[in-house]
Each structure stands twice: as structure tokens, then as C-alpha cells.
Amino acid sequence: MSGPASTAGYAEEAADLFLRYEKRDPAAVHAPWAEFMPAPPARILDIGAGTGRDAGWFARLGHSVLAVEPVEELRTGAAKLHPEPEITWLEDALPDLAATRARGETFDMILMQAVWMHMTETERATGMAHIASLLKPGGRLFMSQRHGPIPEGRRMFDISGEETIGLAGPLGLTNLFHERTGSIQAENMARGIEWTKLVFEKAS
Predict the structure, then answer these.
(1) Domain 14-202 has CATH 3.40.50.150
(2) Mean of the pLDDT values across residues 12-21?
(3) Is the pTM of this model over 0.85?
């Protein structure tokens, strides 16, 4: 019998996630790595786009976004909440990203917020290869990874920034930024949750 899926727990919590995610200012969320972000108009791939908070922010800045989200409850709610015409919503998931790759596009920037720790070791290897192929030369990958207690009903793995850097290097992705910090949310801080932020650039 297989274990829980990488998206386990998200559909059930969708209503709560919209409240929690949308009240956080995306400019503050992205401040630590903002200097590495492309100037608009860039083509951005948001993998695991969730409530669409970041996709909407990117659209308002002048970017165009392909927002990939496997959980229907999040994807349909997000499309209603963020109806910006610069956002295209797509049902797809790591590690294969088959629907995304079928479009034949490459991107200036790829964002994966709190997605990577849901992948098994095998899925991470497969997923990273596909992600690298979706980046334009000189394009950048932005990843945040959660560390700490696993919420009930979720599937997560204890991964490190160092492991991710090691996985990305042979695929032509150079690490530009690596930071591990405590959560800024009081509830998460009390539980010892930490975050790693990583930025990679694909060789030109």
C-alpha cells in the first residue's frame, strides 16, 4: 500500500489556507531574495501556486505567470480570487510536470514555495531535471523549503539546502543565494519551524 500523496492534506485545508496565505504580504515574503528577481516583463512559472497570492503579485508587477497547482480546491479558488489576465492556471504536478512541459515553453523565473519537502528522494531527482529543462539560459529558480514538525495528514521529508544544491549543480544550476532562518510567524516560531531559501541560475 502506498503512503500519502505529496499533496495530502491540502484539499481539506483549502479554506484555511486561503485565509492564512492571502493575509501575508508577498513583497515581505519575497524580500530576502528580491534582488535576484527579474525585472518585468518576465515569464514566470509558479509551481505549487496554491492560493495564487504570489502569481497575482507578479501579474500586478507586470510579469506573466503560468500558475501550476495540482489541488483542484486551491486552483479553482485561486483563479476566482486572482482573475488577472496575465495568469494562466494549469493542473499539473511534480515530479513529471507533463502538462507544463507539453507546452514547449521555457521561463525566465521558476518559483517553488514550500513544495520541495513533499517530494521523495527519487521524485526530487526527477523533478529537478525537468525544472532545469524549463528554465531559459540565465533563468533563475527560487525555492523555499520548510523544516520542522510535520503537520498531521501531510507527507514531508527532512531535506537540506545542501542536498538541493548538490542535486542542482550537475544540471547547470549555480547557487546564488542560500539562507536558513526561523519562521517569522509566531505560531510556527513556537513550534521550531525553520525555512531555507535558495536561488539558482541556469548557465547561459
Answers:
(1) yes
(2) 70
(3) yes
